[in-house]
Amino acid sequence: MRKEQGRILIVDDDEDILLTGEIVLKQKFTYIKTANHPDKVKALAGKEPFDVMLLDMNYKTGDNSGKDGLEWIAKLSRHFPETKIVVITAYGDVNIAVEAMKRGAIDFVTKPWEYEKIQATVMNALRLSKSQKEVAYLKTKQQGLKDSIAAKPMDLIGSASLRSLKKWPEQTLMCSYSVKMELARAWWPGPFTISRSELRRCSCR
Length: 205
Hints:
5-stranded parallel β-sheet; 9 helices; 205 residues; alpha/beta; single chain
């Protein structure tokens, strides 16, 4: 079975949860890491952030309020905005899950885990992560192209206009500068600047 390319991190202070999660997710995904506390995430991420993080909500003995997890969601979302966080909650903690999503999580899974459910949830989070990264890449590429065009408008647009002008009939090229400019605007819909000397080079006179 072909596995989905993706970096997945499971954070929980329960070693049994970490072991189970690793076994279940390794069936579907290429790279799985585990940590027993959120303060280890930065070191594990290294230079390449995780695509998806499964994050438990409680890390203090006897505390099941989820407050600890909510604080970590806010911190991790700021440091790793490209990582999609899925929270792990106890069955019935819907209010905590809702608050977690307000803080930056995108989904939640409940304990005890349903294996197919957690695989599907992580898969959806991974696809969202990849699609958003692709959009960001395309926007950066598009902006780079816009900046390049803005930096050299004469080279890119003026030259294209001149190529069009050179295709005009001979009688048109014999016209005055002002008439040629009006014809150029009708011929070439985009903005351009053409000097008198450039227009003279197009003339047959």
